[in-house]
Amino acid sequence: MHPAFEKIRNSKAVGWLQWLLPGWIWPYAQLIRLDRQIGVWLLLIPCWWGVALAVKDWPDPWLMFLFAFGAEVMRGAGCIVNDIYDRKLDAQVERTRDRPLASGAIKLWQAIVFLGVLLLLGLGMLLFLNLATISLAIYSLALVFTYPLMKRVTYWPQLFLGFTFNWGAMLGWTAVKGTLDQPAILLYIAGIFWTLAYDTIYAHQDKRDDETVGIKSTARLLGDNSLVWVTGFYAVTIFLLAVAGWAAGLDRLYYAALIAAAGYTFYELSQWRIDDPANCLARFKNNRNFGLIVLAGIVLGRIL
Q1: Is residue 8 part of a domain?
Q2: In terms of DSSP H, where are the helices of 100-181?
Q3: Which domain, by its residues, includes 168?
Q4: I need a surface site. Which of 152, 172, 189, 278 has the fewest CB within 10 A?
Q5: pLDDT digits (tens, 9 = 90+) for 91-111
Q6: CA distances to 38, 78, 79, 94, 212 from 91, in Å
Q7: What is the domain-level CATH number for residue 47?
């Protein structure tokens, strides 16, 4: 067994996986961050927003399941692409040096084969959707393969992550409607600002290592002014969500949910400590709650 396998096996980060999966699968599970589902949630929630905004009543459970499956698969594919590009940089950073490609637990060719399998699974999921959604999803592959390079060339890689992670807002809408309409585009732009906010918080965990190895981020760019900027990103997010709801004709309960989401967000910001990596990670993860509050508001605003 590769020495890195043993390190993964004994890692606290793996948690329940070491009990559930055969040992040879552990590095692949770590490669797609199967033990860290927050990334799947943040990719999935905009998809669910789009579905819920487009329907006339309750969201279709089958569509919600398809997007959940697709989010798991495509987030895993994105992680592999990122780790292929970053395998040498990851080996220089304390938090990432034990990733399977950086540590040698998985060879490059094995990661590429696994990536191909995940992309085929994603394609299989798309075949259950309409042609408009399939076409739109194919365009997103350009973002999946180019986003991981952005942190080498711009201090705004979080913006490109926003372009990528919120594409599902439009896919969810087109999966129901068959066309791309104004509310979906507004929802997509709102999601971009949401990602700018939460991923700037996340990037503050690594800002010192990023500076050492030359990785760019909004955390490094905005520095001590990050709280002001992130507050602004959230404010724009909530405003655009409100406009999207108005364009889609949601009931006023949706706006009550937005007020609740805003209150939750600004409480979280009051607890944020930009120089405490553990605190940054906790604030980042809690964005799932923000997204689910908004989702509940969309559903209530539609069924009522």
Answers
A1: no
A2: 100-103, 108-126, 131-146, 157-165, 167-177
A3: 25-303
A4: 278
A5: 777 777 788 888 888 899 999
A6: 23, 19, 16, 8, 13
A7: 1.10.357.140
